[in-house]
Amino acid sequence: MTKTKNKRRTEWRKRRLSEGFCYNCGTRPHRPNMTTCERCASKSRELKRKYYNQHKKAGLCHQCGQPAVEGKMRCKECTTLANTRGKARLAALRNECLEAYGGKCQWCGEADRRLLTFDHVHNDGAEQRKDLKGPNSFLYWLRRNKYPKSIQILCYNCNCAKQYSGYKGPTPELFTEGLGI
After folding, report:
1. pTM (2 decimals)?
2. Of 81, 130, 158, 180, which has fewest CB within 10 angstroms of its CB?
3. φ, ψ dihedrals at 170, nearest 5°
């Protein structure tokens, strides 16, 4: 397809959307906050499902069509790419959560993100971990619950001091008590 055809098609689809019609067919209104009508979306889902099942049956990667790793649904390249994207998305979510709580330790002011942890103010983290599925679901829970006040950021040292010494906040003796200093 030539560049002018692509440009025309893009402009035509933008016009359809601005007029409130489906991006694909242009004959029916699109769904709220979506670009396609229900009929086009249903067709798209059917095609994707068909494509997925054909590749699965043939032992091919469901994303690119290359031979999949034995016992897996993706080839090595697509798996690596998906893992990289997932790690980047998780790092961005963690940074978003840290920023929502001020981005530094609430007790000593440490700002190195590698050292910061999320602490349950009322020490009820074990109960919550039973309800959540997976280690990363906590970050999604924070965002979904609009960053509740029952969570605070502590650096690893302060978090350990709180856990093992029962401190309620920073004091001059925070890191020396129990060390015989």
Report:
1. 0.64
2. 180
3. -75, 135
